[in-house]
Automatic annotation (TrEMBL):
<dbReference type="InterPro" id="IPR015943">
    <property type="entry name" value="WD40/YVTN_repeat-like_dom_sf"/>
</dbReference>
<protein>
    <submittedName>
        <fullName>YncE family protein</fullName>
    </submittedName>
</protein>
<dbReference type="InterPro" id="IPR011964">
    <property type="entry name" value="YVTN_b-propeller_repeat"/>
</dbReference>
<feature type="signal peptide">
    <location>
        <begin position="1"/>
        <end position="23"/>
    </location>
</feature>
<dbReference type="Pfam" id="PF02239">
    <property type="entry name" value="Cytochrom_D1"/>
</dbReference>
<dbReference type="InterPro" id="IPR011045">
    <property type="entry name" value="N2O_reductase_N"/>
</dbReference>
<dbReference type="InterPro" id="IPR051200">
    <property type="entry name" value="Host-pathogen_enzymatic-act"/>
</dbReference>
<keyword id="KW-0732">Signal</keyword>
Amino acid sequence: MSPTRPILLAGLAFVLSIPAVEAGPVYVASQGAGALTRIEAGAGVVAASVAVGQGIAQVAAGPDGRLYLTQPDHAGIDVVDGRTNAVLRRLPFQGQAFGIVASADGASLFVGDWAGGRLVRVSAGTGAVEGSCAVGRDPAGLVLDRKGRLYVADRESRQVSVIDTARMERLATVPVGEGPFALGLNPRQDRLYVANVRSGDLSVIETGTMAVIATVKVGGMPYGVATSADGGLVLVTNQQAGTVVVIDAASLDLKATIPVGRYPEGIAVDGVSAYVANWFSDSVSVIDLRSLTETARIPVAEGPRSLVVGAVSEAVR
């Protein structure tokens, strides 16, 4: 199944104490339109839209304000300056680039080769290959921790690969549910949450032991996962139901089910808000994490699937 294929296949409110912080811009990758949209999160408005070419899969933010968008069907990675809305270049990639994350210093990109079953480290400036290692089949979501360990959701291998990025070696594999697609680390980075699309559940991995300590049934098709800034909430998009399921991180009990747009996929959190890419509704839902309700639905370019929150300093002056 291609990563760019169409799939053929009443919420409760709770008041939480979550500190408010200044919101950064939200960048949304729209696969159908081939566009990158910037939403000024504090105002909830679209500030810019940049054409980068159809077929975008995932977007990652670098520390210098640059955005990186994988093009699985075009053997490349598009680079956009989020401050000036300029498309800078397309980096070459030998394979089918899908999941992507930037290193902490912005010098390197870690890219999952969907067709090749490998993780590749490339230069963020030139695209030159700096190293690679084998992972499982159809590597999807990637997440990098502060120690330089990278986690890869190997969708067709029912596992998460754990990579030492300094040596580009696989340290471990952790069996999870059916069709792991998205990953989310909590702020303490002692828990990794894995959204398993086909088994309709969430695997909870203790990163210290690399063991699954719980499996939470969420139903439907969980395609995206994120945590609140304080780590108290886990938010999972249910593509099939058009909802976001909110789970209490301590008890792993359901707290709320929030209706959003059709076929929600990517989800990102910034301060007191979560942002959800509604693939079939061409919109981004804004969720208030204090009331656990959808407060806005912002129209964006066709086919939004992935999004990322940038730093406040990246906003255009």
